[in-house]
Amino acid sequence: MHDAAKLVKTQELMRCLLTGLTLRECATQLRISYFTVKKYAKEPDFLQELKSLSSSVYERLDRELSVQKEQILERLEQASADALERLVEIMNDPQANKMVQFKAAQDLCDRDPRISRTKRVESQQDVRFINPAVLLHAAATAREVEEYRERQKELGDGNASA
Predict the structure, then answer these.
(1) What is the Cα Rg of the chain in Å?
(2) Mean pLDDT score, 106-129
(3) Backbone conformation region of residue 126, classed left if phi is above 0, alpha if psi is from -120 to 50, else beta
(4) Mean pLDDT in the chain?
(5) Which residues have CB under 8 Å from 156's CB, separation 6+?
(6) pLDDT band at 114 (very low <50, low <70, confident <90, very high)
(7) Residue 46 in contact with residue 40, Cβ under 8 Å?
(8) What is residue 144's predicted lDDT score, i.e. its pLDDT?
(9) How many CA atoms lie within 13 A of 7 on its CB side?
């Protein structure tokens, strides 16, 4: 999005918020995604300008943004707890396929940071640079060795024919 279009959208967002709309209502009103509206609303310059215009609207927006974050974390925790319970049920179900039980057990082990099927590979990387002069010298030495071997072959062939 161009800077001018973004500026217009942020100004419209500011007006909507000042009239008392929530972020979701603003997104609908502006015909842009809710996540884009949240991104604009989180920008420090936007928050500062909103705070200078209306501290009560700023506080309401700040609460709305923090509540959404908390709700997401709560939902993730609940979903994780539900998934954990379901995995335990599958693992202990005598009617379940043995492979499915194995996979459930494996997934449960993966959740425990003390038990790891795959360990991280830790290594120390060392980067060394070769001086181009050293490379040139090595190439010259290789040519000399090759020439020496060729001369030895010629001398060896010449001695055999003499």
Answers:
(1) 35
(2) 64
(3) beta
(4) 80
(5) none
(6) low
(7) yes
(8) 92
(9) 3
The count of residues in the chain is 162
- pLDDT category of residue 119 using cuts at 50, 70 and 90: low
Q: Is the pLDDT of residue 38 over 80?
A: yes
158/37 Cα distance (integer angstroms) = 88
User: Can you give the residue ranges of every domain in the chain?
Assistant: 3-111
Distance between CA atoms of residues 41 and 55, nearest Å: 14
**Angle, CA 120 vertex, CA 114 and CA 126 arms, to 5°:** 145
Tokens, residue 134: 């050293």
Nearest to 39 by CA among 5, 8, 6, 74: 6
The per-residue pLDDT for range 69-113, each reduced to its tens digit, is 677 777 778 888 888 888 888 888 888 888 888 887 777 777 766
Kindly tell me the burial class for residue 108, based on how many C-beta atoms sit within 10 Å of its own C-beta (0-12, 13-18, 19 or more): middle
CA-nearest of 47, 21, 45, 48 to 34 is 21
Distances in whole angstroms, Cα of residue 9 to Cα of each of 26, 34, 36, 56: 10, 13, 10, 22
